[in-house]
Design goal:
single chain; about 450 residues; 21 helices; globular
């Protein structure tokens, strides 16, 4: 029996176009429908029939109004337009077993690594799970009055989408996060609301801008990241959300670490003062650990230790009183603090302090979080090397390289490269030779 080929199937060369890839990554199906009609000759009525949507709904989406967020509908569009699952955060679709529809996902090395394939499968499954739980946003026509409920829905979406960062790199998530931010800006610009709702929207936009800025930074787009952090800072100040404004400054300092040390420390210190002593405990822990990092990269050991102590105390305080924490800082826990302690002491050339903290933290850190674990292993490898444990450093670097394969982030390779260069002095050791062979393969 011949395989069914829908009349809306998009040509492979169409899917490879940058603007189409960007639209798919952002789940901007309206843009895809619009381009499909104008350049592939696929009518809205055909798209509607194959996607089980009303024709006017397709037209509205194509005009840039509304969005598609439910897993079931995204999967239906994937099947109707023959968009490979990996381009939409879905597991491979059943029809993809047909060689005619094989389409290589971005950021793959083509080597068929089993570890990479397992990770890609998990990433797709995780993204699909997140898509199922995304809350719908009430539609609002231009000029319509909106209430407090919409900012609350947008904040819930931001919290849900933040989970993508646990398994995907910035190159995968940037357009998703940026799309959310730009859509909220458009909503705020075109709608009417009370002053309190306006401030709530500004706070949500500040949070969304930070998400997009982090993804841009992780993808290596530092200019875009800095611009988004600065815009987030202004929006957070306008909304009166000073903990969030402080976090924007902390992001800026973290990105600039390694530049002019005095400026970095001043920005990190200002982030703590902006958030204030009444900020939630997880926020204070986050900002002070980033201040500690700014001190560490500038070689100031006593100031680093003091800031780390403040971060640990803030976290302990939050655990004791069980106060509510903003979702954007709730990920800061004892493991995160231990990792930062290990990173700081590695940077300061104190491996006897760094190694135990990193080993404790990483002992229960799953390989699923490939980007972060590969980064943290690079610091552990560097600490081992500083302690003269060359073979252990080589084995740890090998693990970091394995995890970094297929991760859509520039940071793991940037961190691992100088460690490999230092290992080059011991190239006669078999464990080091294996690392160098893998890097040069």
């Amino acid at each position: 029996m011949a395989r069914y080929e829908p009349p809306t199937a998009l040509p492979r060369e169409f899917l490879e176009r940058p603007e189409v890839r960007a639209a798919l990554a952002a789940h901007n199906f309206g843009a895809v429908f619009r381009i499909a009609r104008s350049e592939a000759g696929i009518s809205y009525s055909k798209i509607a029939a194959e996607c089980d949507m009303k024709p006017d709904r397709v037209g509205i989406l194509a005009r840039g109004v509304g969005s598609v967020t439910t897993f079931e509908k995204i999967a239906r569009i994937s099947d109707a337009l023959r968009i490979p699952g990996n381009m939409l955060g879905l597991a491979p679709r059943q029809w993809e077993s047909d060689p005619l529809h094989a389409c290589t996902a971005p950021n793959t090395d083509g080597k068929g690594s089993e570890a990479v394939h397992r990770r890609e499968f998990f990433k797709a499954s995780a993204a699909a799970g997140i898509a199922i739980g995304l809350p719908e946003i009430e539609s609002a026509k231009p000029g319509a009055r909106i209430g407090r409920r919409i900012p609350e829905q947008l904040r819930m979406r931001a919290a849900r989408l933040r989970r993508l960062d646990e398994v995907l790199g910035g190159a995968d998530t940037y357009h998703v996060y940026l799309g959310e931010f730009l859509a909220t800006k458009k909503l705020a610009r075109e709608s009417v609301c009370s002053e309190s709702t306006e401030k709530a929207l500004q706070s949500v936009m500040a949070e969304q801008a930070q998400q997009a800025g982090w993804a841009a930074f992780d993808a290596g787009s530092h200019v875009d990241a800095a611009s988004l952090y600065e815009e987030s800072h202004e929006l957070a100040k306008q909304s009166g959300d000073f903990p969030l404004a402080g976090n924007a400054l902390a992001f800026l300092a973290y990105q600039q670490a390694g530049d002019e040390f005095r400026s970095v420390i001043e920005t990190a210190d200002e982030s703590c003062r902006t958030a204030g002593p009444d900020a939630p405990s997880s926020v204070r822990a986050l900002l002070y650990e980033r201040l500690a990092w700014a001190y560490a990269v500038s070689g100031q050991a006593s100031e680093t230790e003091r800031a780390l102590s403040v971060a640990e105390a803030a976290l302990a305080e939050g655990g004791a009183c069980q106060e509510p924490q903003p979702d954007w800082a709730a990920w800061v826990d004892h493991t995160e603090i231990q990792i930062m302690i290990g990173r700081c002491w590695t940077e300061l050339g104190r491996p006897l302090r760094a190694v135990p903290a990193l080993e404790r933290a990483l002992s229960g850190y799953g390989d699923t979080f490939a980007r972060d674990k590969s980064l943290y292993l690079s610091w552990l490898a560097e600490a081992y090397l500083s302690a003269g444990e060359v073979e252990q450093a080589a084995h740890t670097t090998m693990k970091a390289l394995s995890l970094a394969a297929g991760v859509a982030s520039v940071r793991p390779r940037q961190r691992i490269t100088p460690v490999v260069q230092k290992l080059g002095a011991y190239k006669k050791l078999p464990a080091v030779a294996d690392v160098l062979e893998l890097v040069n393969a």
